[in-house]
Design a protein that fits this description.
The protein has 263 residues and is of the alpha/beta class. It has a domain of 182 residues: Metallo-dependent phosphatases (Purple Acid Phosphatase, chain A, domain 2). Helices cover 34% and strands 20% of the residues. It is built from nine helices and eleven strands. The strands form two sheets. It has a six-stranded mixed beta sheet with strand order 4-5-6-9-7-8, with helices on one face. It is globular and about 50 Å long.
Amino acid sequence: MKIAVFSDVHSNLEAYRAVILDIAGRRDVDALWCLGDVVGYGADPEICVHITRALAGSAPPPAVDEELAGAIGSLAGKLRYVVLGNHDAAAFGHRIINYFNEVARVAALWTAAEISPLACSFLRNLPLTEAEGDVLLVHSTPVRPQEFHYITKVGDAKEAFGATDAAVIFYGHNHRPVVVSDRGGRPAAAKPEDFGKDARWLVNVGSVGQPRDGDYRACYVMYDAGDPRLEFVRVDYDVDGAAGKILKADLPRVLAERLHYGW
């Protein structure tokens, strides 16, 4: 079973479009999993939510260009899971917004004012975690997922492994692709090609719409559950278009600028 796992779209329609076209072009994708933060930072929260709903099979494709509509149609119903991200939660008034920095807070308040009640309801009803077999999906960490803490060091990874029996934990939130193995309670950085060997795994799938690993391109993961294997995929997109919309919306300039250098 081949699964496209993605996270942190962050209202970046141009990046989301490129990733959806790339996934649809593979023609052998059995399912999609989304790890949250469909909205936040970018200038297209409403349409990104409705694209997500369409991929989940709960709505027809929204008004998009013909190529994207065709790709969404070919993938409709394959988005099996969408979990709640902290920016998704902020959009419907969750207290997590009180912990945002000023730039994130401004963008979150703008997003909350922009999205429709239907989009807001979709976000409000997302679960914090999902599981399929021995795989756990979460936006931040399985340690008190409702608090949206970050996994940034070995101790955080050890706590994450200790909070679940899952063999594989897919997460986002940090916007940086990472693979960590755990053999006998000893988490260690690993390479994607090591995935599937005798260990437990913690995998950050990177970000579609706000990469922060120094590579501006949209990022997602292809996960082969049958083999098993991981492939980190990077996709070019119209960065100028996405950045221009952020500036036009009068959102903080840094949100546009950072798209160009992926940080």
